[in-house]
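Handout, section B. The chain below has 201 residues.
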Amino acid sequence: MWAAIMRKLAGGARRRVSPRAFLRNDKAATAVEFALVATPFIALLVAILQTALVFFASRVLDEITEEASRYILTGQAQNASMTASQFGTYVCTGDQTLTKLVSALFTCSKLLINAQSYSTFAAASTNDPIAGFNSSDKPVDANGNVLTMAWSPGNPGDIVVLQIMYQWPVIGGPLGFNLATANGNGTRLLASIAVFKNEPF
């Protein structure tokens, strides 16, 4: 019995590993290999997820703009003497099919609505009026002046350009991936435009 114990102890004694044996040892090679590819793999996952979310939110904003434009096109907004703020509330809580999705994705108070009316299609401008954002997250023009969004839904037969914009928050991913626009506040400006001619309401 005593001899068996002594043999067990002698067999379990650790020997010093030579440098050559250490270099040949392939235990935990998988962990080392994963450590080498983990950062680019995680960066790719973050990039895919963030890009998908931005595209999804942008598509929903397009649908919102298309549906909400009918409220102006048919004269309902004008007949109700709606302000831009009231129209923004309608966009978020109105009788549209996307209302629940809008309130789930966007903060309604941060929707920027710009509606301008023109006499002809040739005169209509679809240029983005926003050049950037100041430190208070207010939209500014090219001169740095705070912009007031226009609200001119027009009269029957007028051409209307409706722009609905939103600052979508994004996070910077590993390896420098970032979808933020150059406004310095870590958001991407999503914008959707509808151009239409008002019906004779």
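Note. The first strand starts at residue 112 and ends at 118. Compare this with the example in section A.
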